[in-house]
Specification:
Elements lengths: L3 E3 L13 E3 L3 E3 L4 E5 L16 E3 L31 E12 L5 E5 L4 E2 L1 E6 L2 E6 L16 E5 L4 E3 L2 E12 L13 E2 L4 E3 L1 H37 L10 H25 L4 H27 L6 H20 L10 H28 L7 H14 L1 H6 L5 E2 L6 E2 H22 L25 H9 L8
């Protein structure tokens, strides 16, 4: 059985009489920490007097999780502690005393979640961290579990006790989602100090929790790619039906977006800037455009060329506005310019949503299309996830303590229902099955809903026969 006895961790320049004692395990350094926003290299010095700094307690509430991957032992950042809207550097310092067990070194597991990068100093010595602090602003990578050995020469012996000062230099980049979050900034999961065996066990648990958080993200793309192959396999039956090509493009892009999540968080070769350019700009922009074009083809509304032109314009608008709307990529852009592109980005996404609603309205049929509409609705939960976040729909739930992601559930439902829809389309090519009308062109002969006479005429032309570009 693992036992830990925690008497006191002092949070000042001078250590108190109480000490930390370890069994064969480790203890979370929840606090109190001394905390100060700003940056000064003198703050790494173990002799620096931090008694005037504010104190921060990183003790998590029971059952606390972060709102993305569901990592446990989560606590709010500095935005929720009186520093709302602050981006930049901040320091955490703690003077720790431990019983001298005679071991050559103690070990520390770095904080498992930090906004956005950190460096670790022990007794004034830089031991490492996550992020490239040689740049201004620092280069940011995904936060991963890290192990740090704290050799005996970093501790000051005092009788049966050892003491040292542990300091974290944290950087939160302007333009990241954490910089505007209500609880963003700084350390969210406390580091863990202890014996090598205890800390290594905790380190393995951190990696296991991380892997569990992104296991679905790594497996769902496989099913999406299988569906893409299934859609493309129908091209020889009707080469002029553009739905199969567009939905295959959607599935490939959606799979790339999902698979990029574990690559970013686990592989550690992609910086946050790379993630914004590749994942949030290129993949997401093309995905929105392909999503609209797929359902235009499904509803056989190809003759509405203004939909294609509007979709192309919105895609181009998104690809330009997304990277220019964040100071992360171009920090020297004036705030007014960044704000203008942020407004353009929101407008483009809203435009895609309006186009989708128009297509669903024009393609409405009183019966026989529930699979098609259910496919669109479940897929849109993922495609328009940002809009759901803005209206307050939670991104993750924890029924019975188990993390349940909104987008993961919606994506699984989308894949299952799309499979049924593709089977329906494939079945329509079987010998003896009536070809006209067949999905997705089984609309009854009725007048258009009033987007103008030209649209009405175009729509009437495609009621009973499949129309092509």
């Amino acid at each position: 059985m693992i036992t830990i006895s925690l008497l006191q961790v002092s949070a000042g320049a001078k250590a108190e009489d109480s000490v930390l004692t370890f069994g064969p395990a480790a203890v979370a350094l929840n606090g109190p920490w001394r905390f100060h926003v700003g940056d000064d290299p003198r703050w790494a010095d173990s002799n620096f007097d931090d008694s005037s700094w504010e104190t921060v307690d990183l003790t998590p509430k029971p059952g606390a999780h972060d709102g993305d991957g569901g990592l446990t032992n989560y606590t709010s950042g500095w935005a929720a502690r009186g520093h709302t809207g602050y981006s930049g550097f901040a320091w955490y310092r703690m003077t720790v005393r431990v019983a001298d067990s005679g071991a050559d070194s103690l070990w520390l597991a770095g904080p498992a979640l930090v906004d956005s990068a950190y460096q670790l100093y022990v007794d004034g010595h830089l031991l490492g961290g996550i992020g490239d602090f040689s740049r201004t602003p620092p280069g940011v990578m995904a936060i991963q579990p890290r192990l740090f050995g704290l050799p005996r020469d970093l501790w000051v012996a005092n009788g049966q006790h050892l003491s040292t000062v542990i300091a974290f230099r944290v950087a939160l980049l302007k333009g990241t989602s954490a910089s505007t979050a209500a609880d963003g900034g700084g350390i969210h999961i406390a580091p863990v100090l202890g014996t090598e065996a205890g800390v290594r066990n905790h380190y393995r648990l951190q990696w296991l929790e991380k892997a569990e958080a992104f296991a679905v993200d790594a497996t769902e793309p496989v099913f999406l790619l299988i569906l893409a192959v299934m859609a493309l396999s129908m091209l020889p039956f009707d080469p002029k039906d553009h739905f199969n090509m567009w939905i295959a493009a959607v599935l490939v892009l959606l799979g790339a977006a999902w698979f990029n999540q574990p690559l970013f968080w686990m592989a550690h070769f992609e910086s946050l800037k790379d993630f914004v350019v590749w994942r949030l700009t290129i993949i997401d922009g093309l995905l929105l455009g392909a999503w609209i074009m797929a359902w235009r083809a499904a509803f056989a509304l190809q003759r509405l060329r203004w939909v294609g032109l509007a979709c192309a314009s919105l895609t181009l608008m998104y690809l330009i506005a997304r990277p220019l709307s964040t100071p992360l990529l171009l920090p020297d852009l004036p705030h007014a310019v960044t704000s203008g592109f942020a407004a353009a980005l929101r407008t483009s996404r809203l435009g895609f949503l309006v186009l989708l609603l128009i297509l669903m309205w024009l393609g409405y049929a009183p019966r026989g299309r529930w699979v098609l509409y259910l496919t669109i609705l479940t897929g849109s939960v993922t495609v328009f996830g940002r809009e759901l976040n803005e209206i307050g729909v939670p991104g993750i739930w924890f029924p019975y303590g188990v993390g349940l992601s909104r987008s993961e559930c919606a994506n699984a439902a989308f894949a299952a229902i799309l499979f049924i829809y593709l089977i329906q389309r494939l079945w329509s090519f079987a010998p003896g099955v009536r070809q006209t009308p067949r999905l997705p062109n089984d609309r009854p002969n009725r007048p258009s809903r009033s987007l103008g006479t030209s649209i009405a005429g175009e729509r009437a032309d495609s009621i009973s026969t499949r129309t092509h570009e």
